[in-house]
């Protein structure tokens, strides 16, 4: 998923997306550790998607904090 698509999400949607991505990354790590994962590149993609979503969430949190202080 592209950063633009993530930025277009509502806050509640973004929180659900982050939770889903965290579960996906955990599942992929577990599958890799047990030797069941065939597509190891999928782990990298899932981690990048999670990082993008967390970055957008952090940007929003920072922007909200700045608005409160002004």
Topology summary:
Layout: H1 3-7, H2 11-33, H3 41-69
Helix pairs in contact: 2-3
CATH architecture: Orthogonal Bundle
Output the helix-strand order.
Answer: HHH
> What summary fits the major beta sheet?
none
Low-confidence stretches: none
Please give the alpha-carbon distance between the first and last residues: 33 Å
Number of individual domains: 1
Beta fraction:
under 5%
Helix content: over 70%
- Overall mean pLDDT score? 95
* Top-tier CATH class: Mainly Alpha
Overall morphology: elongated
Class derived from helix and strand content:
mainly alpha
- Strands, total number: 0
Rounded Rg: 15 Å
The CATH topology name reads Helix Hairpins
Number of helices: 3
How would you characterize this protein structure?
The chain has one domain: Helix Hairpins. Helix content is 81%, strand content 0%. It is built from 3 helices and no strands. Helix 2 packs antiparallel against helix 3 (41-69). The protein is elongated, with a radius of gyration of 15 Å.
């Amino acid at each position: 998923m592209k950063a633009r698509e993530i930025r277009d999400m509502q806050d509640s949607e973004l929180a659900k997306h982050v939770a889903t991505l965290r579960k996906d990354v955990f599942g992929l790590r577990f599958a890799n550790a047990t030797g069941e994962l065939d597509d190891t590149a999928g782990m990298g993609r899932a981690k990048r998607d999670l990082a993008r979503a967390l970055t957008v969430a952090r940007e929003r949190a920072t922007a909200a904090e700045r608005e409160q202080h002004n």
